[in-house]
Hints:
Blueprint: E1 4-6, E2 14-16, H1 17-22, E3 27-36, E4 39-53, H2 54-57, E5 58-69, E6 77-79, H3 81-87, E7 90-92, E8 97-100, E9 103-106, E10 119-120, H4 124-137, H5 146-151, H6 158-170, H7 207-223, E11 226-229, E12 236-242, E13 248-252, H8 255-260, H9 271-276, E14 283-288, H10 300-305, E15 307-310, E16 313-317, H11 327-338, E17 345-348, E18 351-356, H12 360-377, E19 387-390, E20 393-395, E21 398-401, E22 404-407, H13 413-416, H14 424-436, H15 444-454, H16 465-483, E23 493-499, E24 503-510, E25 513-521, H17 531-545, H18 547-550, E26 555-559, H19 572-582, E27 587-590, H20 597-602, H21 618-624, H22 640-649, H23 651-659, E28 665-671, E29 674-681, E30 684-686, H24 689-702, H25 708-716, E31 719-720, H26 724-733, H27 736-741, E32 747-748, E33 763-778, E34 781-793, E35 800-804, H28 810-822, E36 830-834, H29 840-851, E37 854-858, H30 867-886, H31 898-910, H32 920-925, H33 939-958, E38 961-962, E39 971-975, E40 987-996, E41 1001-1007, E42 1013-1019, E43 1023-1025
Parallel strand pairs: 1-6, 2-5, 12-15, 23-26, 26-27, 30-31, 32-38, 33-36, 36-37
Antiparallel strand pairs: 2-6, 3-4, 3-10, 4-5, 5-42, 7-8, 8-9, 11-16, 12-13, 14-18, 14-19, 15-16, 17-18, 20-21, 21-22, 23-24, 24-25, 28-29, 29-30, 33-34, 34-35, 39-40, 39-43, 40-41, 41-42
Helix pairs in contact: 14-15, 15-16, 17-19, 24-25, 24-26, 25-26, 28-29
Amino acid sequence: MLRALLDSGGSSSLMTERFTKKLRLKKTSSKQVWTMPGGALNTSTKCQAAFTIPELHENCLISWDLYVAPNLGAYDMILGRDVLTDLGIDIRFSTNTVYWDGAEIPMKDRDAVQTESFHLNDPAAIEDAADRLKSILDAKYEAANLRDICDKSMHLEPHEQEQLYALLNKYETLFDGTLGNWQANEFGIDIKPDAEPYHVRAFPIPRAHTDAIKLEVERLCELGVLKKVNRSEWAAPTFIIPKKDGSVRFISDFRELNKWIKRKPYPIPKIQDLLLKLEGFQYATSLDLNMGYYHIELNPDAKKLCTIVLPFGKYEYQRLPMGLCNSPDIFQEKMSELMVGLEFIKTYIDDLLCTTSSTFADHLGKLDQVLERLQSAGLKVNATKSFFARHELEYLGYWITRDGIQPLTAKVEAIQRIAEPKNKRELCRFIGIVNYYRDMWIRRSHILAPLARLTSKDAKWVWGDLESKCFQKMKNVIARETLLAYPDFNQPFDIHTDASHTQLGAVISQNNKPIAFYSRKLNPAQTRYTTTERELLSIVETLKEFCNILLGQQIVVYTDHKNLTCKNFNTERVMRWRLLLEEYGPELRYIKGESNVVADALSRLDLNNNEPYEQMSIEATAELYAEDPEDFPENFPLSIRQIAFEQGKDAVLQAQVLKNPSRYVTKSHKHGDKSYDLIVRDDKIVLPRALQRKAVEWYHTMLAHPGETRTELTIGQHYCWKGMRTTVQSVCGRCPTCQEMKKQFRKYGKLPPKEPEVIPWYTLCIDLIGPYSFDVKVKGHKKTIILHCLTMIDPATGWFEIVEVPEKRADIIANLLEQQWLMRYPWPTQVVLDRGHKFMAEVRTLLKDEYSITRKPITMQNPQANAMLERAHQMLHQMIRTFWVQDQDDIDLDDPFTGILAAIGFAMRATVHTTTRATPSQLVFSHDAMHNVGFKADWQYIKDRKQKLILQNNKRENATRLPHAYQVGDLVKVRQDPNRKHGQDQYTGPLRIERLYDNGTVKLRQDTAHGGAVYQTWNLRNISPYKA
């Protein structure tokens, strides 16, 4: 056994020279320089080693090239990112566990051994990416450069800049970037009398963010915002969101605490009322308070309620946190009290606007009063986010000018640019937008009547002046109502996005009323993006376009592309955009396409003043895929010139034209400045043999991998050739993406029958079940009780035991197995257990070291291995529920499950099994469990009956499988875990068969990207032939 370190910070893997000699491994020359905390390390050789990681997967053999190091400190091996990435081993710091292929084990204590960290010299691109990530995540807060801010105020005259600087410098400490402390009474939180403390586990934190959040926590502790505590009844989870200015947004989830708070609402000003009072000003200054809510100190009781939990400890908020339901109320109340009597100041929580209608000197004088009050109260202002003495500025999502309020026209630009429809389909899309918000535009039916008539099935398409006027009038109604819509920053923003092949579309709304629309054409390069990239681009551009409204707000994004709601971002472009999204912290939700009406229409309706990419000719499409239209683009095989060229070379096609001149005609097709004669049959271009397969591959890829029939029908609208169906079947059937992503309905290879279990006490099957939750009333309040159980069964007799697991710890589970079975019944020869449970590692050690019992781990590769126990679990849940309801009035809340589980265990042992036609008690004790009657087991009858049922089931299953003789060397694909996340591949492969077994399993070899190999045994049920 070797001591190994899983090091996600190491680029490659190493082994000590001591073990290479001991194992007599052959070494090859390979020089490499490593960087580590103590300095540089030079290695000169590599070796190939085969090893297993028994705690995770004892039957999986890994073959890998390892660098040889003289000494690795306390470890014999270091497995770096090459192994972890290729094999998919996940180090989960949030739960202190390691996960691989369905198995999960706890991290081990390093016994205070200092771990040496090794890193390869990364390429410059990786170093740049790491520096960029660090610059985003490391929080940086500093005093404002007031001189620089004033000098950059180009709207002011030089002497006005000097006067502004003199005023700001007078209050220099107000802009020093530190956290203020409001000189007022401490703030308390009143909670309801029946409030129950809420305590939750810490949210997992990505490893890349761990250092940043620790720095932020340390900074907040130094500022007095947080204080580390050891114990608390309350604990809310917390996480951070990186921001584009290099700081981090610290967010605590106080939703459960908010349920118990007695809120004392204070009137938050309506944005509409604030804006109506702003007309006619000469100068306006907007002030942004630095870390606004943190200015207010909490009293001792409130601090205990506002406790948060992180993976590395608990902390109390000492200041008023964001996320409390009454934080806006208390802050608005205090700001209103602070600015009372100053009619020229408008306050919206922590956004202050000072407007004056006289001279510049008058404005500075009144601004002086505001700054003096802020400084006296102990507050701080973020100068870099404030704007001073402007003639116009943006405030709460509106453009404030001397002439009045001007809504941001970008909100309705997408609607105003919609071109007049050219057919019924485009008109229906536009009407769909209108009807989606039918409650907003009451007169829509009257305006739309002439347009609606055109959508009738029997109506002839005639677009005249009346229809054009109605169309423009309806657009104006939508634009006017949307421009006048005021965003409510106390409510979440809903964003619906969509992307077609040529255009983006989105709508921002609140309470089902539109706030803003967005749409634009894609440029030629963007039309070649994948579907995922186009859909994500629509989200990113919408957030950037309306960042003044959305940044810092609660956002829910709805998309009809389900893959975006998953975490499998696998291209550099997608990962880069995903990082941009994190600044806004949106929640991504999936919505069906038919429900995404408005965004879908905006992404497809033609826009004015743009090249109409949507209706492209073949020639125009070809130009997108080649710099020079005269060249043959490699990834677009259907340019007119190339088709003409290949038709002339195709001798078979030329012979067919001579043989059947009546079926083939020649038509001229223009490409650029030239015309080419193409062979056509039935008004479809005949594709020459050289382009047939390329065309199918191109269509199949561009149309997101449709099936054989849809691919053939689509191509057949414009092209034809003899044997098209055969070509389509060959391409689609061998498509690597389809073989990985699409569900395989055909099953290949007949399964052999298994041997029946008829030797008592030879095999023991164990598993964990739960959690099951049960509600009970205690003193008038509902309380939820959670149950986890350990189940054990002898498959020969059906003898069954079930015991509650009071705490899911490895040592407790191992002790329960030992006490409930191994010390009461004959020791089994082998134990079948689920390798997926992280708690089973201790059980495996117990069986091997204490009892020398063979472990037989079951995996997704061989799911039928523990079938009998799985069938028992199907009955258990219903039985537990039944007993709970039946005996609820007599349940002992201090020990609610002991009696129930004892009764269930007895019921399972005293009930006749349909296979054996006997009860487990009768087979074990030769006596009935409920009556004083003896019983003699006929084990030959039981064996024959089990064998008969096995053969019947095997015959039934094989009837649905196609005959297929797998051979050593064949390529196959493997079905992924059925519990995988949405968007993940259905299959993985290709893998090569290394060995065939007679029990319906095969050993497969999977080569890795770094030259290693992994060997695993799989059941035939999970594999299918891979068509290369």
